[in-house]
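YM 10:42: Aromatic amino acid aminotransferase sequence, as discussed on the call
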Amino acid sequence: HPWRVSRPVVRRDLADLPAYVPGARSPVGAAAFKLSSNENPYPPLPAVVAAIMDAAEDVNRYPDMFATELTEAIGASLGVDPAGVVVGTGSVAVLGHVLTAFCEPGDEVVVPWRSFEAYPIAVALAGAVGVRVPVGEDGRLDLVAMAAAVTERTRVVLVCTPNNPTGPAVRADELEEFLVAVPEHVLVVLDEAYVEFVRDADAADGLATFAANPNVVLLRTFSKAYGLAGLRVGYAVARPRLAAGIRLASTPFGVSHLAQHAALASLRARDQLLARVDAIVAERTRMLAGLRGQGWTVPDSEANFVWLALGDHATTFAERCARAGVVVRPFAGDGVRVSVGEPEATDILLEVAADWLR
Ligand code: PMP
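YM 10:58: structure's back
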């Protein structure tokens, strides 16, 4: 009982949560490249910087709470009803709002694992119980096992596609079968943080899936392809009735005026930004081919990172990369995720990888 101790006590279950360890904030040493947080290596476009500067004039006022202009622009760009678009401070915050809006204490959320490390934390914070379903050796989500893990208490299933940190995207046919197997009252969240990097013709089409399935919610972000990680803008796309519920759980005025205008300017510059995405995808192809050519087994990546399943050697490999000038992201005992960035960084990574096998 908290009143028997003489100091405030933090919720005990929070202490048991795995920490969300961010990639190193800044590279070690002047020549280092940061490949640890799946960020966009390109600086913001001048038009985006200009929009941020203009918006700065109004920061004595609260932002538009519902980000009307932005949700309308997102709706128009995707061909969805803007009433179904809910923005937040990064899609990680929006995910928290979705879980808070749909889960009551003790409800179950099916999550793939290993996947985005924020999932178990967000689920626990919402008071729900995470049910983990292992990702296959090939880095692919096992949607058959995930559907089988659904019980009477399941309220939400998280489908990360492409999966962070392993890379593959779910296929259209397997997602279709999965949605037939999952009861219609279960919310299926397609976390499409990396959707702009997908090139596999067999990959599921999130928007088409959303159009055909009222229980599907899409989660997207301006942090990756659009290069606005530092401003924190993400969003959910849901049926308007569900979106209204997610809005109830959202932080009031969460997305700043600067962030709203930067996101709007980014949508206007979409073609230019997506050309950069093409360059990152080309670099991904080079990194994958380079690694496979050396003899590495690497899962297909449809995102802006590749996964090296190094097991117990993950931390040592990451240390070697850091010494060579690239900061990568180790998951101790499991593997190393390398974001795709500058070509020079790929060259260094490939050198370290070749050395490692020698
Ligand atoms: N989903 C996935 C799968 C991610 O990898 C990330 C970022 N690492 C996010 C969501 C959250 O991104 P943000 O909060 O910056 O939108």
